[in-house]
Amino acid sequence: MRSYLSWNSILSDIQEMKLTLDNLQGNQVRQFAEQAGSGLNRMISECYRWLLCPAQTLTPSQAPGNLTWEIFALNGHDKSMISKIEEKLIAEQVLIKQWAPIHLNALLNTWFWKEGRKDIGMLTVWKSMCDYLYMPRLASAAVFQQAISQGVQSGDYFSYADGQEGQTYKGLKLGLPVNAVIDPSALIVHLEAAKAALSQKTAEQEQGADKSTEEKDPQPGDKDKQSRTGDSTGGKSTDTSKKRFFGTVELDPHTGRMDYDQIHQEIISLLTTKPGHVVTLRLDIEARAPEGFDENLQRAVRENSNALKFDDAEFE
Fold first, then answer.
1. Threshold 0.70, pTM exceeds
2. Mean pLDDT across the chain, nearest whole number?
3. 53 forms bridges with which residues in the sheet?
4. What is the pLDDT of residue 308?
5. In angstroms, what CA-CA distances link 210 with 203, 204, 220, 267?
6. Radius of gyration of the chain (CA)
7. Of 160, 203, 206, 213, which Cα lies nearest the Cα of 183?
8. Which end of the chain is more exposed for a tag (fewer CB within 10 A), N or C?
9. Do 97 and 139 contact (CB within 8 A), yes or no?
10. Which residues pair with residue 158 across a beta bridge?
């Protein structure tokens, strides 16, 4: 340590022009400083080479057992301490960077699908995995979100919903790509409950379609009436095909994301199915504060608006 500090002090004086040396002497100083640094890193690696990780296993009755410590030896002198720790944890499967949805499904079956429960909050599951040692340790929330997305898209494990209003799941997805979000409203839905909800929704839609068809069925005399109407108009076509659609809806500022997902799925996706359709979306935001917006909030909103390329964003 003393040698490292000494050579780095000389090297610092050279760089700050406090000490004048010729090129040969300067190169020697840099060489000795590098050798001292390498030796110091090697000494630290040899001294601090044991990694202690808390662990907790389950008893045969699936109850949490006693807290224990797992000890791992760190090897290698050519890497940083953080890199060695991360590689060791991944190699020993203490830290998980890729997680298959089948393992998440097993976790849900063991700890969360109890007493007839049909859904569980994404945030609840993620916090539990962060708090309890007997649950898998994921490297980041992105690993958890990826497992959710893969499991939902496969259609074999569980479903995902943006939220719930009463007994209705909003933005329920099964067997489809999904962008899973960890927030208080997002839910992981049991597979059977999701299938039942989707089946009920499909039945209601089919019933509504049948009712609409019955209302549009031609009635006796309609043909003659249509013929007379055509004659009265001089044989001109009565086609009233619409060429423009516009719609306005007010969204709740707290649950607007769920509402928008439903609008996109049931309205926008229909309008964009056929080639040649041009769909333009605009978002209008209006906020009022009786006591006025503070300067910090105004600055943050303006910066975010510029970053998101708003055409117009002003306070007044």
1. no
2. 84
3. 70
4. 84
5. 10, 10, 20, 20
6. 33
7. 160
8. C
9. yes
10. 190
What's the pLDDT tens digit per position in 5-19? 888 888 888 888 888
Q: Where are the domains of the chain?
A: 2-47, 96-209
d(CA 78, CA 9): 24
Report which secondary-structure segment, H or E, holds 307.
Answer: helix 295-307
In this prediction, residues 80-104 reach a mean pLDDT of 91
d(C-alpha 67, C-alpha 80), whole Å: 29
**Burial status of residue 287 (CB atoms within 10 A of its CB: 0-12, 13-18, 19 or more):** exposed
Q: How far is CA 87 from CA 70, 75, 135, 142, 143, in A?
A: 16, 10, 20, 19, 17
Q: What is the DSSP secondary structure assignment for residue 138, as one 8-state letter?
A: B
What does the alpha-carbon distance between residue 267 and residue 41 come to, in Å, rounded to a whole number? 62
Residue with the larger pLDDT of the pair 141 and 266: 141
> How far is the CA of 287 from the CAs of 219, 253, 284, 297, in angstroms?
52, 10, 10, 12
